[in-house]
Every structure is written in C-alpha cells, then in structure tokens.
Description:
4 domains; 8-stranded mixed sheet; 29 strands
Amino acid sequence: MRRLVDSTIPFTVVYALYHHEYLGYLISSHVVQLLPDKQLSLVHQGIKTSNMNQFMEELDEKDQELVKLMEEISLKVVVKQFGGDQRKPNEFFFTKFKGEVVSLVELYIQRRLSKILPQLIDRQVFEMGKDGYPAHTPVKVLDEKATVLFHFRRNEDSTHYFPTIKLRGEKIEFQRKSVLICKEPAWLLLNHELFTFEQKVEGKKLLPFLRKKFIAIPTDKEEEYYRKFVTQIIERYHVYAKGFRINTIRALPRFSIILKQHNDSFDLIREVAYERFSFPLYQNGFVKAIMEKEESAYTFFRIERKSELEKEVERALDDIAPQKGTLSPWSAIPKNDGLDWLSEHAEHLKELGVEITQQESSTQYHLVKPELEIITEDDGDWFDIQAKVRIGGFEIPFIKFRTHILRNKREYILPDKSVAILPESWFSDYRHLLEVIESGKDETMRIPRYQAPILHMAQNGSSKLPI
C-alpha cells in the first residue's frame, strides 16, 4: 500500500498538468512530502475538499480556491456531472461521450481552466510523470504575456495565412514544439513555460498551426473567406497583410435612428457611423472591419471604435426605449406611438447627438413638435382669436387644422409635402373651441363672449367644460 503524506512533518503543495485521452489537458492538486534537505520526496497524495483540512498549514486562500476548482475537473467529478457512473469512467466515454456531450464537457472544463491558470503564476507547477508522480518536470507559469501577429499573403493562386508569436519581445518557434493547454483564452506550453497572450486569443485560431506552417486558401474561395474570416481576424487581432490593403479609420462617431416604415408600424434602427461606414449600434467590439472589392483588388477598412461612447449612447437610448420592458423595444411599434415617441424625444435625441433619419422612398414625417401660439382680443360681444402654428420653417393659421382635429386626423401635409404629426393633446384641448368658433378675417377665428369659458378652457389646456 502506497504511503500517504504525513501532515505533521514538512510537506509542500504542488499542481500537476496531465493529459487525459478524452478530456485533454487537466490540472490536479497534490501535496508532496519533503526530505530533510527540503527536496521533494516520492511520497505524494492528492488534495480534495474532503481531506484539505489536514493540510491547511501550507494552504492559503488561493490554494483552497484552486483545490476546489481542480476537483471540479477531476475525472470522477466530470463523469458524474454528465450522467456517468464515476466508478466506471470507461463506460461513460464508450457510451455517452459523443455529440453534444463532448462540446458541453469541453466548455465545462475550459471555463474552469481559464480561472485556474492565471492563479498559478506564483505556485509550484509540474508536468505529471507517466507513473502518476505529480512533480516530474517543473513548469514555469509566466506573468509576462506573449503577443500574436496574424499574416495574410495573397499570391496568384492562393492566400497563405499563419501567425507569428513573440515572447519577451523575441519571435519564438512554437510549431511542432508547443501544446495548447487552454483554448478560451489560449494558454500555450512551450519549453516548460506556460503563457497566455496580451489579447484574449482564441485557442482554435492557433491550433492548426501547432502542426503546420500555414493554411492556403485557393483563389476561387478567397472572396467568401476574406469577407467572413479575415474581417473577424482584423477586428480582434493585429494583422500584417501582403496582396491587399488595410486602411485604419480613426474618426468621431455619428449616431442615428433610422425610421423604417411598415403598413401600420415602425422599426427604429439604431446605428453608429464612422465616416461613410455605418453599422448597428449594439454590436460589441473595439474594432469594426469592412471589406470592399473593386475588380480583383480588396481593401479592408479597420474602424477604431469609440466603444465607451457608443455604450453610453446605447444605455441612454435604452432608458427611453419606446417599448421599454418588452422583447422588442425598438421594433413593431404602432405608427402613432412611434411618431409620438420621436416627437416627444426629439430634443433629448438632439442633445445625445442622435439624428433621426427616414428612408427616402417612404413618407417623410416632420418630427419636430408643433408650437401653438394663441392671442385673443376683446371686441365687445366677441373675442377675436389669432392662433398660429409654427412647425419647422412654416407658420400656419391654426384654423387650417380645424378639419383634421374634428375628424381625428393626426397627419397634416405641410407645404413641402412632408407630414406633420399633430399632438394628441390638441384633439382633446381644442376640439370644443373648434366646434364653436367662426372664421374671421385673414384666417383668424372669432367666438361669442357668452362662450368665453370654452376659450378659457382651451387656453389652459383643459378638456373638461366648466359647470
């Protein structure tokens, strides 16, 4: 029977990297007995939450957290977590480890590895020996991060794609020499050093190049490949290209809400634009890449986004969304509700720097809220009323809106053929007045003195007649 570590005499905590046939690289926690000269002995024992208390003398808070995380990716726990019998792990891998289960297990392990690895920088880490000894080969977990540069070289018959990696400012040879320990983000093991990258590099972007120098994309596939894949790489990483251009754009963003009309509803599409390029405001990222092709030449525009400003504007718009709290706060908005919202928030949107844009082929709505000015003059038995509506650059006698208000028609065609939306309040506040007024000279209005309460009601914005 193998000896266990005696916690009453000196021991140390170590962490061991090992490879599992189905689960890939995992890490486990162990204690190793120390010899009188403080060297590691061959006596070792795994640490779990169930026996952690007896070794607390050498475990700080970080170690305790690591022990818990590593236990979650131990073979028995993974098998049990995904419906297998932990006493029969081989049966699980032969019968259940397929299809979606493989993806779920990988995601489960990768999430925990991404939490474990950064915490190992100041710990004792080793590669496990084939005999299970946890302190076989020392591994240094680097605090310094590597950088990656992706290369594209377009030739007559293909485009070659490959990465180069620098560590400590020097280019390193990693192909056929390194191992990918974690995929999201990427951690590489090379020459007994374990490191990650300044950018959060996806491991799957490096994986093909651990065994090959480059990937070749044939000319007949390049346009689709450039549009779908190269743009993604430009958005996330540093890129060096030969055979096509990458132009960087640094500009201030412009924000807009595009009014997309349907029969009885609107979609309000929020966009951000940099120079002549626009895209949805809610897209994440610090860089946006857009490809253009002219004849056989490709140009990529690498747009450096003001992400914090975009998020600030997006949050401000979310706070006043026309259908806030629903699954579609910006789409399928009833026509009148959408127009009221735009009119009500026009000034606030202007303060936010958000421009309202309408599609040229559709009805053009004048979205500035109309201003009504009413002046009355006492003329004996009558009151003369001069009422004018100012909307945009137009000044229109209020009496011209009489038919619309009495017939509940909110859309009024302006001289420039755009459509003004009459405020909903007008249909209650001024209906009684417009029912009783008479036309005066020069498109003014008149009302008998005995009906003055109706005039008073209209001037005070009340829809209730006095008793």
